[in-house]
């Protein structure tokens, strides 16, 4: 039986002014620890110390809710886990699996995670016959019970919203794909490239 090791790295934000830059001491220690494990990848800094803590925390938009979703029954099973698995190879006809969306200067990762998973599942369930990009903006802007838009949201509420209300289609920024494409521009988060640099302040949540 193959073994799968999941390492969950939880970082604790120290109380203080949210406008002060992120301290490098904790970050450097965490990077050194990860790299000391000698895994298949190397950790490094994505942002320099000039980025405000409020902005970086804002990009980590996923939030946890204590109830009622936390009371769902736990499910456990023993599975044969392969040495490696690549979803792009398992379902090569599903283009959404290969696509990497850019949330821009908005803490919408919670919305992106949900709509990308939904898009992939629709394609997988239809054996590649239905290729759809579910709109991140529609979820981000219109789900009033999901949280605070670009300031963060609850993934479990987003799944519930899709189940009970539904979501329209919508592609990347300026893609003109679907009913409601993403309106926040893509940007370079921590390197110099062909895109404009990201703002150091979170954008306003688009209107529904």
Descriptive overview:
The protein has two domains: 18-50, no CATH class; 87-208, Cysteine proteinases (Cathepsin B, Chain A, Alpha-Beta Complex), CATH 3.90.70.10. By secondary structure, the chain is mostly helical. The chain has helices at residues 24-36, 53-59, 87-90, 95-98, 109-125, 136-142, 155-164. The protein has seven helices and no strands. Keywords: Disulfide bond, Hydrolase, Protease, Signal, Thiol protease.
Provide the fold topology.
Blueprint: H1 24-36, H2 53-59, H3 87-90, H4 95-98, H5 109-125, H6 136-142, H7 155-164
Helix pairs in contact: 5-6
Note the main attributes of this structure.
Cathepsin B, Chain A; Pept_cys_AS; mainly alpha; disordered N terminus
CATH architecture of the largest domain: Alpha-Beta Complex
Terminal Cα separation, in Å? 48 Å
CATH superfamily of the largest domain: Cysteine proteinases
The low-confidence runs, each spanning 5 or more residues with pLDDT under 50, are 1-22
Mean residue pLDDT: 83
Q: What is the CATH C level class of the largest domain, in words? A: Alpha Beta
Strand fraction equals: under 5%
Q: Report helical residue fraction.
A: 25-40%
In brief:
Residues 81-207 form the Peptidase C1A papain C-terminal domain. Helices cover 30% and strands 0% of the residues.
């Amino acid at each position: 039986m193959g073994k799968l090791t999941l390492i969950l790295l939880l970082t604790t934000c120290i109380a203080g002014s949210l406008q002060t830059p992120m301290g490098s001491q904790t970050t450097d220690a965490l990077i050194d620890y990860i790299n000391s494990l000698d895994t298949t990848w190397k950790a490094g800094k994505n942002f320099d110390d000039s980025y405000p803590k409020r902005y970086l925390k804002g990009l980590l938009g996923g939030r946890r809710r204590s109830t009622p979703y936390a009371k769902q029954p736990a499910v456990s099973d023993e599975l044969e886990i392969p040495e490696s698995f690549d979803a792009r190879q398992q379902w090569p006809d599903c283009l959404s699996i290969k696509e990497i969306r850019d949330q821009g200067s908005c803490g919408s990762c919670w919305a992106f995670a949900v709509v990308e998973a939904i898009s992939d599942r629709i394609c997988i369930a239809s054996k590649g016959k239905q290729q759809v990009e579910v709109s991140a903006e529609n979820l981000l802007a219109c789900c009033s019970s999901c949280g605070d838009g670009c300031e963060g949201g609850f993934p479990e509420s987003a799944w519930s919203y899709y189940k009970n209300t539904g979501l329209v289609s919508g592609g990347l920024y300026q893609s003109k794909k679907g009913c409601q494409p993403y309106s926040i521009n893509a940007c370079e988060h921590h390197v110099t490239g062909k895109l404009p640099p990201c703002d150091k302040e979170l954008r306003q949540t688009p209107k529904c």
